[in-house]
Amino acid sequence: MGKNVLITGASSGIGRCTSIYLAENNYYVYAGVRTEKDYESLKSEHKNIMPIYLDVLDEKSIQKAYEELKNKNISLEAIINNAGAVIGQPIEYINLEDLKYQFELNTIAPVAITQKFLSLMPKGKIINISSMASTGIFPYISPYCASKRAMDILFNSLSIELKNDDIKIISIKPGVIKTPIWNKSITRNKARLEKLPDDFKEKYGKELLALSENANKNNYKALEPQKVAQIILKALKAKKPKSSYCVGWDSIIVCQLAKLPQDFLNKIIRLRLKSQT
Ligand SMILES: NC(=O)c1ccc[n+]([C@@H]2O[C@H](COP(=O)([O-])OP(=O)(O)OC[C@H]3O[C@@H](n4cnc5c(N)ncnc54)[C@H](OP(=O)(O)O)[C@@H]3O)[C@@H](O)[C@H]2O)c1
Predict the structure, then answer these.
(1) Mean pLDDT over all residues of the chain?
(2) For residue range 214-240, what is the model confidence (pLDDT) as tens digits?
């Protein structure tokens, strides 16, 4: 008999790959999508995947998805908070709507999903797809870093406050993974940056170009999303899961680097930025 999991943001990348991988490993996957096209395409991937409309920024959509599972008497084994996006802009000029969106999607929505669906999970695991970026060491994508760190802090607190050893909270921290997230981020941020004054372009232009080039490289030099799916399965199956899993060498190294004294670390980061521009 399979176990039920709910995953948000299953249309592409890590979410889609994990949905398929868990389905192949005898889990029943309630896979959150936002379009009919994604619904149909995921449905045809595997009989154990049950797509469900779920926009994590829309209260009504969350309520509807919750009622759908509740009416079917679904008891969840795991909630996987995966939906997310990357905002990368210099803080001096960052568009504040984008900054709010970053926190709404990456930080607040996982809390909203957890608050709603936890009652369907008497025991099990909340698995959050955080990032090595949660260490906060990457300038220009600091909105992304901060949103992931904030999510980790909130859920660490939840793990203590719940006073329930039957609910485990796990943060997955992938390094760079080959998914559409980087191209989406380039497109979104480029549109914003083009509208900015010339003195801004002069001040940050080189770094932002390097940032885009790096994001482009991520499309081919990175790990496959399957690696993340494998770690998620490992965490799901573990009797005593760790509270945090790094995925990839880059993540392991970055998590260690982040322990260096801040001033020293900032010097290294500035030197690296200089060498890239
Ligand atoms: N790729 C990496 O290098 C990397 C590394 C570390 C962590 N991560 C994290 O992994 C997670 C998945 O990202 P990915 O790399 O697989 O990128 P992705 O392919 O772009 O997937 C993002 C997913 O989030 C969904 N989403 C966006 N807004 C949503 C909303 N309002 N409601 C519901 N779903 C929404 C997207 O759905 P739509 O198609 O409907 O927009 C999509 O399914 C993210 O949290 C990301 O921060 C990624």
Answers:
(1) 95
(2) 888 877 789 999 999 999 999 999 999
Domains identified in the chain and CATH numbers: 3-276 (3.40.50.720)
8 lines ligand 1 (CB under 6 A): yes
From the CA of 222, give the closest atom in ligand 1: 3
Give the angle subtended at the CA of 60 by the CAs of 55 and 62, to the nearest 5°: 50
Q: How far is the CA of 263 from the centre of ligand 1 (A)?
A: 32
Residue 18 Cβ < 6 Å to ligand 1: no
Q: Which of 239, 248, 83, 110 is nearest to 178 (CA)?
A: 248
Segment 183-214, tens digit of pLDDT: 999 888 888 878 888 888 889 888 888 888 88
Q: Determine if ligand 1 sits within 6 Å of the CB of residue 65.
A: no
Are 98 and 146 spatial neighbours (Cβ–Cβ below 8 Å)? no
